[in-house]
Amino acid sequence: MLEYIQILIVSIILGGMLTFQFLFAPLIFIKLPSETARPFIRKFFPFYYLYFGLLAIVLSILSYYLVEQDYGYWLLAAFSFTALLFFVSRQIFMPLANKASDEERKSDFTRHHRTTVGINTLQLLIMLVALWLLT
Q1: Residue 81: CB partners within 8 Å, gap ≥ 6?
Q2: Does an H or E element contain 101, and which?
Q3: Please, which residues have CB within 8 angstroms of residue 78's CB and are 6 or more apart in sequence?
Q4: How confident is the model at residue 124 (pLDDT cuts 50, 70, 90)?
Q5: What Rg do the C-alpha atoms of the chain give, in angstroms?
Q6: What is the dihedral of CA 69, 72, 78, 82, to 10 degrees?
Q7: Could you give the CA distance from residue 54 to residue 20 in angstroms, rounded to a whole number?
Q8: Helices 34-65 + 2-19 axis angle, to 10
Q9: How far apart are CA 34 and CA 42, in angstroms?
Q10: Which of the listed residues 63, 67, 92, 117 has the most CB atoms within 10 Å of its CB?
Q11: Which domain holds residue 75?
């Protein structure tokens, strides 16, 4: 039973992240005026990182109890690392990007934003590999 819950949570994280990255975020900036889109995204991201970070912690806990399954130690490490990255993005890089944007330091904003996008892409790849290994 725990294995199915694990697969379900990986699927929720993967699907949610893909939907945000390829549908939700681009549409916000295409369909909404900049003065609406930017504050909305700033309010959304802390929730995004917290929600998926907490789900990744649940995955880590499940993986601890399922460590004897195939790839058990790898999954435990991968989900724990993914959870950590959500909180690093939320607590470190997002505030740095916001501050750089507020202070109109475009190169710093670009660097911090690219870092969060790179982290997000790495997390997506980890979840994709995990789903493949679990199924």
Answers
A1: 126
A2: helix 94-102
A3: 126, 129, 130
A4: very high
A5: 16
A6: 60
A7: 17
A8: 160
A9: 12
A10: 63
A11: 2-134
Both structure tokens of 126: 């980890």
Q: Considering only CA atoms, which of 130, 127, 135, 129 is closest in space to residue 16?
A: 127
Number of domains in the chain: 1
Mean pLDDT (whole number) for 95-106: 95
- With tokens 């929600």, the residue in question is 51
Structure tokens at 29: 């900036």
The structure's pTM equals 0.91
**Whether 66 contacts 92, CB under 8 Å:** no
Cα–Cα distance measured from residue 77 to residue 85, given in angstroms and rounded to the nearest whole number: 12
Residue 43 corresponds to which amino acid? K
What confidence category does residue 25 fall into, taking pLDDT thresholds of 50, 70 and 90? confident
What is residue 88's predicted lDDT score, i.e. its pLDDT? 98
Output the six-digit token pair for 118.
Answer: 């790179």
